[in-house]
Specification:
Length: about 230
């Protein structure tokens, strides 16, 4: 499921991140991918060990925690600390796969376990008119989807899909990106739960029959109980 979550960052959070990134020290994005990814990846990132990355990552995680729509769609169990990247001067990232199992760094940079990447997220930090190109293209059984969102908006997509970032031919495209292990591994099940959750909320707002809404809510939670891994 591809889901656009608008306004994850408010104007103040966005300004804080943009100001910090304007004077940040970047590193080559090839440092965080394997040999295959390095062949097609041309961008810059904040270094993983950078204190700025941690500081800005906390702003992103706090913003996600305040988004009910994001929570309903992702049902997050664990989230890798967000990274930040910049594409400019023709920078791009050709079609690639994201690693399915990623190591989570603990204190001192030592590996502290692993995360299964069920969901990939890109949080756009530049407005669409600030750059040319730079669309995130996600390929699935329905074809290719081109995604370019307002600054502060998030796209949630299955980490299992092939995807790329088109060359940025003017300006700079800043974004944050991260992976999530969901409580519900299977994308189809996650989508069913999300659609049921959304419908229950619509019925509640419409003051539908309370007993029927209660029964549906019970079914939602019983399905989640069947499928969740925690
Ligand atoms: Ni990727």
């Amino acid at each position: 499921m591809l889901l656009h979550v608008p306004d994850v960052l408010d104007k103040a959070q966005l300004a804080r991140i943009r100001t910090a990134l304007a004077s940040a020290d970047w590193t080559d994005g090839k440092e965080t991918v394997g040999a295959q990814g390095a062949l097609v990846k041309r961008n810059r990132q904040l270094p993983d060990a950078s204190p700025l990355r941690q500081e800005l990552g906390r702003i992103v995680l706090d913003a996600l925690a305040a988004s009910p729509l994001y929570f309903a769609a992702a049902l997050p169990l664990r989230t890798l600390p967000p990274r930040f990247n910049c594409y400019e001067g023709g920078g791009n990232y050709g079609f690639h796969v994201d690693g399915s199992v990623m190591s989570v760094a603990g204190a001192g940079g030592q590996a502290a376990g692993h995360l299964r990447s069920d969901i990939a997220c890109t949080l756009f930090l530049s407005e669409p008119d600030e750059y040319e190109g730079g669309e995130l293209v996600v390929s699935d059984t329905y074809g290719e989807h081109q995604i370019k969102l307002p600054a502060g908006d998030l796209i949630v997509y299955p980490a299992s899909s092939l995807h790329k970032v088109e060359p940025v031919t003017r300006g700079a495209r800043l974004a944050s990106f991260f992976w999530v292990q969901s409580m519900v591994r299977d994308d189809t099940r996650r989508r069913l739960l999300f659609e049921m959750d959304t419908s229950i909320q619509t019925l509640t707002r419409a003051a539908a029959d309370a007993n029927a809404v209660l029964t549906l809510t019970n079914i939602y939670h019983n399905l989640l109980r069947q499928w969740a891994e925690t």
